Amino acid sequence: MYRCQSAHKLVELDARFHLFARFHPHTVVDLAAAPGGFAQVALERMQSAAPQAPSSSPVIEPPPMVIAVDQRPIQPLPGLVTVRGNILQHQQMLQSVQRTLHPTPSRSSAAADVGPPRTVDMVLHDGVSVVKGQHAFSVTYAQNQMALSTLLLASKMFLQFGPAHDKGETRKGNRTEREMKPHTDSPSSSNATTPGNRTAPSAHPTSATLPVCFVSKLLRSLHSAQVVAATSALFRYVSVVKPQASRAESQETYIVAMHFQPHRWQQLVNFERHHGHREAETRERSRSKWMPKRHSLEINPSLFSMPPAVEDCGDARRMVWSCLGCGRTCMGVQPCVQCGAFASASRAGCHRGT
Ligand SMILES: C[S@@+](CC[C@H](N)C(=O)[O-])C[C@H]1O[C@@H](n2cnc3c(N)ncnc32)[C@H](O)[C@@H]1O
């Protein structure tokens, strides 16, 4: 018996993509996890895959753990570690996860008692945005902005706490991950859309990826294509699915992203380093144009910069929003003066309104 209906959505996503069998996660971070339905499913799947008897393998695997974060309390479960906090505060979240993954050994216990090293192998996000001041925005804008923020947070977690690079075949403990194939869901199938699917190799097909998985809720709207494009820029395989457990009349869908590409993140960092000063020079000129940038075919901060549309706002002129591309607070519905406009539907094979 699950704590809430959401659990059935993760059950469905797992049945479809074999997420737990594919990635064998030891540690899952569940963002916006209360009351704990997703966490129940994750622990159930991980515990049933964990070896029941001591293994003969010299590699000791850590027992399954879900780090569940929410502003609300979550009832305990074996294997569940709860963190009270705001998932939009990345620094705090990273520190909390760091403390949970690598607890300082107490003076009385030996370092070996801390257990085998852990990595974050999967990040789930099923939050319903309840940000202070949100009433100023449409629900779909606030929700997709939250999805974009958790994409960045998950990426930071995979970079800081993720497993080693995956070069075709992954060994985790004594198990070998199945070689993944891109999903070939048909866009015409009743409950699936695949705007971010990569059936062709990415720009750097031989580059290493991290064998990790990110699942996040988004709401179909003007902005969801941007969330899909940003996710597709960072992960090798991306699908967007509406589980049957999700009400048909709701705009809710789930994005499932597999195999994080650290080199794509590095490109983003390099872009900021190389182009940041040029942006400052051209800021005044571009202020009146809001044209796509010259570098729009590359991963760049505009992917993560999502101004509200006029229809998302009560009073568009007074609207204050946070740019996730550069971190600045912006006003109005124009693109961020630093990051520019996201205008690359073709870049990720996406269409606005997906
Ligand atoms: C639909 S519920 C999540 C259900 C959960 N996946 C489950 O299976 O039980 C949405 C949750 O998002 C949480 N939430 C929304 N905004 C948040 C934020 N900024 N930080 C932390 N939690 C947040 C709410 O407190 C709420 O518990």
From TrEMBL:
Q: Per the record, which residues fall in region Disordered?
A: 163-206
Basic and acidic residues bias locations: 164-184
Q: Which GO terms describe its biological process?
A: maturation of 5.8S rRNA from tricistronic rRNA transcript (SSU-rRNA, 5.8S rRNA, LSU-rRNA); maturation of LSU-rRNA from tricistronic rRNA transcript (SSU-rRNA, 5.8S rRNA, LSU-rRNA)
Annotated source species:
Leptomonas pyrrhocoris
For bias type Polar residues, the affected ranges are 185-206
User: Sorted alphabetically, which InterPro entries does this protein's record hold?
Assistant: RNA_methyltr_RlmE, RNA_MeTrfase_FtsJ_dom, SAM-dependent_MTases_sf
| This protein's UniProt keywords | Methyltransferase, S-adenosyl-L-methionine, Transferase
Write out the GO cellular component annotations. Answer: nucleolus; preribosome, large subunit precursor
UniProt-recorded Gene Ontology molecular function terms: rRNA (guanine) methyltransferase activity; rRNA (uridine-2'-O-)-methyltransferase activity
Chain ranges of the Ribosomal RNA methyltransferase FtsJ domain:
2-260
- Designated name of the protein: Ribosomal RNA methyltransferase FtsJ domain-containing protein
**One Pfam family matching this protein:** FtsJ
